[in-house]
Predict the 3D structure of the following.
Amino acid sequence: MTEDLSPAERYAAARIRAAEQATALAPFRDLYEFDLDPFQIEACEALEAGKGVLVAAPTGSGKTIVGEFAVHLALAQGRKCFYTTPIKALSNQKYSDLVKRYGPEKVGLLTGDNSVNSEAPVVVMTTEVLRNMLYAGSQSLRGLGHVVMDEVHYLSDRFRGAVWEEVIIHLPDSVTLVSLSATVSNAEEFGDWLDTVRGDTEVIVSESRPVPLWQHVLAGRRMYDLFEEETDHGGRGSARREVNPDLVRMARMENSKTYNPRDRRRGKMVREADRERERRQRSRIWTPSRPEVIERLDAEGLLPAITFIFSRAACEAAVQQCLAFGLRLNDEEARHKVREIVEERTASIPGEDLHVLGYYEWLEGLERGIAAHHAGMLPTFKEVVEELFVRGLVKAVFATETLALGINMPARSVVLEKLVKWNGEQHADITPGEYTQLTGRAGRRGIDVEGHAVVLWQRGMDPGALAGLAGTRTYPLRSSFKPSYNMAVNLVHQFGRHRSRELLETSFAQFQADRSVVGISRQVQKNEEGLEGYREGMTCHLGDFEEYARLRRDLKDRETELAKQGAAQRRAAAASSLEKLKPGDVIHVPTGKFAGLALVLDPGLPAGRSGGQRGGYEYHDGPRPLVLTAERQVKRLASIDFPVPVEALERMRIPRSFNPRSPQSRRDLASALRTKAGHIEPDRHRKARSEAADDREIARLRKDIRAHPCHGCDEREDHARWAERYYRLQRDTRQLERRIEGRTNTIARTFDRIVGLLTEMDYLRGNEVTDHGRRLARLYGELDLLASECLREGVWEGLGPAELAACVSALVYEARQADDAVAPKLPAGKAKAALGEMVRIWGRLDALEEEFKINQAEGVGQREPDLGFAWAAYQWASGKGLDEVLREAEMPAGDFVRWCKQVIDVLGQIAAAGPGATEGSTVTRNARKAVDALLRGVVAYSSVG
């Protein structure tokens, strides 16, 4: 081709080639066996030009190549690069990748429990580690040229998202930021914000998947395509995806009325042939079992596959079902290779622990090429599953959705059992964003020609809704940024109050809030035009109808107010009656799911009113008695179950041997309850006379309404309807105006309230951070202020290492599901007293937060400490065996290890922040001893937390 060019054109082309070879990108491209995609080249060129970049692309598209180029560029320029990830597993994985390329002397790793070569020019770390370094003014930040933020869409995470924004805001201006995100629908908005806070930022969005994805539905023995490709639709020559009509027909047939032998057709029984045809059609629609699905995928050549099941127990059950089915996906050679790798990776686990951890059942599944993957597994076991899957030695993985977050485990196929999952509060449909994230694992670049997403047919499935999920790419990035106590003292220490306030107003949260105000303002203008039209509609020729309507509204408001007062008085009377209950009282629960006869086991009094009773659980939302119903159920009731006062009908002795967890104990005591009080009829509560009947204000308003000229209008009710619309729209408009006021400076106002509380507690004095504040600045965590107060008040002084571990566990642990029926088991003696003191301090902080309008519902403030892990932490730190600890804790090994690692992390912070031995304190020394006591066995040999 060059022969066809003129000498001038050949010279120009040679100059372009020479210029390309002179860039840092040219040698970087040579490191890969494949050509870079256009979006990767565009992002790398922007980086080399000194710009920051935001790359938003689908899972598996190769975004990390842009991050790797930032590493390459930093090393070429003699500067540092920090590569941050959201989870330790991803940090470990990226560290291994970079060590293979650049060698161990140039790459370091910093996570909560690992520190390897931390002063290397390239350091992989979790985002929290970088945030802590920024606040501490670490010397490691000197010479930093690039920061890569992998999975930056984590800033939507309501628990940890704020950390990403803190890093972005506080990084020095000289640092070039590389943000790598999943496909989000508002990448341009996020890019605009980055441009505002970080300077020139290039936004590169790639919508195309490197490997095409085919969508299927598996029903019975047949795999249906979800979409039917139609070309030249309507003669326009364009392709359009339509839902497969076979699926629509199946859904319609399944939802049609089933045969009933009593039905008649023209006076005769439905013919047997019709029934047989219907049975034959329906027999094709069924949900195949898990082993059948894997067998079918294997036959179609669609393995390896990840099946997403939104339950840990179901993942483990799926593996057992496949084993019982006799499924074998590995040949003899692969089995030997699996055993060799597994034995090598688990060699450090003591033999007595292997049985407790279910090692042999797990190994059997791995040898057959089948495994589970979820957060309840031991981290070492999860890592082995990931390694074997990537090597092709495990071909079927049953996983919870946590696998979709970051870990590099692409498959040929992804299977979704159901499109509903438990979100922590209720069973909810998965969102288009979640569907995209899960199915994004299908299709391995450089290995598969295409990926496959398979959804199992379920009764009641709507193919149209599934097509909507599969065809929508809406996954907006929403900030979850909220100031915290630790953040406040660190900011004031570094910048002072005024500058800190200004910095917080540059957050993405405030940026989004300010933008949303524009749309609300437009709506206010439309509403004001509508109000003018409604005002005309309620005009009356007899008088001022607006005045008349106001009288009617005042009357309605007064009646509502009196009704609320009456309800409040009834609730107060009911609460007062509940406070008088004692264990052994027989009561009648008036309403609710557990209405009827019940025996009080624990009165569940509010905090501070336990009256010296032992074993009582204290609550801050009114009495919550724990009762045994006549139907043998032990339940914690709430004030909503008692709309009227309750009285003890009878008294019963509760046997000391009674165990609420024992069905036999419950059965025996419920039988005694029915015998003792089953014949007693409860008193009926008489309804009191309405206060509205005697209220002077209501009498006056009714008189004024009857005397008003508009009261006699023939069209009065028509005018009243227009007036009602007017007031409703006026109320909505005022709410919108309040939202506009509330959305401007929202973050700064929250910061002001936090600073006010910290000033009240002597953590801050104006722009000065006190000694207490400097301690708080070194405590990172959800309950940072509670931890600081415990240190300040000496709550943990005199505790042994195991007792201290038990107390610190309450700062990090959160039960997966609330279970307040039985109080958690606690270590006796000093630890129990210290835990009680921690709950009392939290109660005081909670009241103070309410006073300063710091709202936990908005993600700011201190939640109640959870004592559910205290006994397990105490036992483990005391040297008890794994079998005993896990059995008593009723907790999977993976959860146990993860909570221990978090306790160790906070103990390390306490050791660094706590008072020294020179001050006569034992806390710092015992915190270090507690770390050593916890860091043993399964906790010590799990490299990932």
